[in-house]
């Protein structure tokens, strides 16, 4: 049941549901599904081992399962969910963006970014987005549909397999951070995103065994869903895409602000910080002559000081034909200085991927 006041989105009329997949199911549900196919329930553990621990979704590699059972189990519990349309790489191959085609032809994106001390993957939770933020390529495209839990999880499984197999320069590596900052508003696909987080963080072989502390969930500020998220008992980080400290401007940059105002969004974020013990990340895209004025930086600093918070300033990655562009370097420096004068920690995000249509939604838009 939706939380009162929560935004919900219906699938387009006539849209087909993604096929059921192992990653959609809890361990208990997997055992039931395997038994319903006439197989011993322990086969569910074997399938989970192959998918979540070995990244082996080819039945030919399942040598511990009778050959006569493999095809049926694969068809019913490990169907092909998505295929790679193409990869685009830059930064000597250490940033790789993947365009995926889902079972129904829908396009989504994920990005893998390798740094000297960590590997981060940015994933999508929806195909398109219904938040309608005018400076965002995904928002301009509108919402196609929610991704299933398994479609979300498989982006990470594929990324981890590519790291293990040395497909990304730098040798084999392990994924350390996941950010739900790709296409879509994660908290508008609440149930499936929570399911994905459980699959990502359940111990192997029930899940991928990743740390909740390495997962960041971004939101434009769906206030009831933030409070609901706090009740999940997770240790994920919450990132709030604020982009303006004043309601007058934020109403235009982030249209959902007409429903939940800046103060309501921040109050919900502070509640999440208190319950989870994690500091809040404030995402702020710096847009030239729109939201990068010194007085706005001062106002933002006054609102955030004395809270468990970190500001992540994002030089806007402009989309083709857009009037929105990145701030001038001097304005960016002044914005940082104003926040620091209030004792608010702030960094400017490393802008990777501009030469490969790095802004979320650009690769899918180009393919269309």
UniProtKB/TrEMBL annotation:
Reaction proceeds by a ping-pong mechanism involving intermediate methylation of a conserved cysteine residue. Binds 1 [4Fe-4S] cluster. The cluster is coordinated with 3 cysteines and an exchangeable S-adenosyl-L-methionine. It comes from Actinacidiphila alni. Its EC number is 2.1.1.192. S-adenosyl-L-methionine binds at residues 184-185, 218, 241-243, 317. The lineage of its organism: Bacteria, Bacillati, Actinomycetota, Actinomycetes, Kitasatosporales. It is found in: Cytoplasm. This is Probable dual-specificity RNA methyltransferase RlmN. It catalyses: adenosine(37) in tRNA + 2 reduced [2Fe-2S]-[ferredoxin] + 2 S-adenosyl-L-methionine = 2-methyladenosine(37) in tRNA + 5'-deoxyadenosine + L-methionine + 2 oxidized [2Fe-2S]-[ferredoxin] + S-adenosyl-L-homocysteine; adenosine(2503) in 23S rRNA + 2 reduced [2Fe-2S]-[ferredoxin] + 2 S-adenosyl-L-methionine = 2-methyladenosine(2503) in 23S rRNA + 5'-deoxyadenosine + L-methionine + 2 oxidized [2Fe-2S]-[ferredoxin] + S-adenosyl-L-homocysteine. Residues 1-22 are annotated as: Disordered.
